[in-house]
Amino acid sequence: MTGRPTTPASPTSTADRPKSYSSPLETPRPHLGHAVASEWTKLISVRSTVWTLGSLVLLVVGIGLLAVSETRSSDYQQVPLTAPALFGLLVGQIPVMVLGVLTITSEYGTGMIRTTLTAAPDRARVLTAKYLVFAGVAFAAVAGSVASVGLASAILRGGAGAGAHGGGEWAHALAGCLYVTLLGVLGLAIGAMLRHSAGAIAVMLGLVTLPPVIGAMLSMWETLAPLGSTVLRYNAPVALMRLFGLPDAGTGNSPGSAAQVLLLLLVTGAAVAGSYVVVGRRDT
């Protein structure tokens, strides 16, 4: 029988097989440090950081130094030398909260969040980096402003009889700086959940400014007076006054500064946990 001759199939040589691509550049496994570096670059590259932190420093240092100029050494027998910083910080806490909100909502507003999550799909890591970078920058700015006013009052008004609170006044002022930083972290968490700058800022302003007003209104009715008294004792202005060693007149026996900080820690912790859940489950 004759037929078409067949040629045996030759095995494919190793040289003919396609090779997998290997980048000549180092490709390290992404980690939290990379996300922190990215968030740091973004935070210092936007104008909102300069405006908010600049207004914080201007308010705390400017109003604080003005308060120091109007005092005498004998005035610090009852209040700590860091007390003048409180007057500016009562207003300066607002820029910190605004910056916390804008740290994340600005990305949602511009659509940059899509690029961020494409480059770093691990949303929990991105959110953690935002919290770490913002908290570090905010605390440094607040603590530096308060320390500047405290040092100025110690130099100009630290005469005989001043500084009756001893070295503990600086620890209390540090706790006050932590309190304001936590307010900013709370703003970041609410911004992460709402994704809207104006809405999140309005919520934060309401949380800080409305409790004294609501507490005073509730205290007008006898049946709601206990609730009104509680609201008056647990709010941001009263907490800062307690932390800086100033009397909070009209609020009765107010809780200690530790209780005020613990309350804010619980509220902020709950909001931060909620932000991880919301950001991890929804679309951008």
Describe this structure in words.
It is a single chain. By secondary structure, the protein is mainly alpha-helical. It is built from 10 helices and no strands. The chain has helices spanning 32-45, 47-69, 84-110, 112-119, 123-157, 168-194, 197-218, 225-233, 236-243, 257-281.
Q: Report how far the terminal alpha carbons are from each other.
A: 72 Å
* Secondary-structure element series: HHHHHHHHHH
Number of E-type strands? 0
Shape: globular
* Poorly predicted sequence stretches spanning 5 or more consecutive residues: 249-253
- Beta-strand percentage? under 5%
Instruction: Give the overall average pLDDT.
Output: 84
Determine the number of helices (DSSP H or I, runs of at least 4 residues): 10
User: Structural class of the helices, strands and pairings?
Assistant: mainly alpha
Fraction of residues in H or I helices: 55-70%
**Estimated radius of gyration:** 28 Å
Describe the secondary structure blueprint for this structure.
Elements: H1 32-45, H2 47-69, H3 84-110, H4 112-119, H5 123-157, H6 168-194, H7 197-218, H8 225-233, H9 236-243, H10 257-281
Summarize it.
The chain is mainly alpha-helical and 284 residues long. The protein contains ten helices and no strands.
What labels describe this entry?
single chain, about 280 residues, mainly alpha, globular
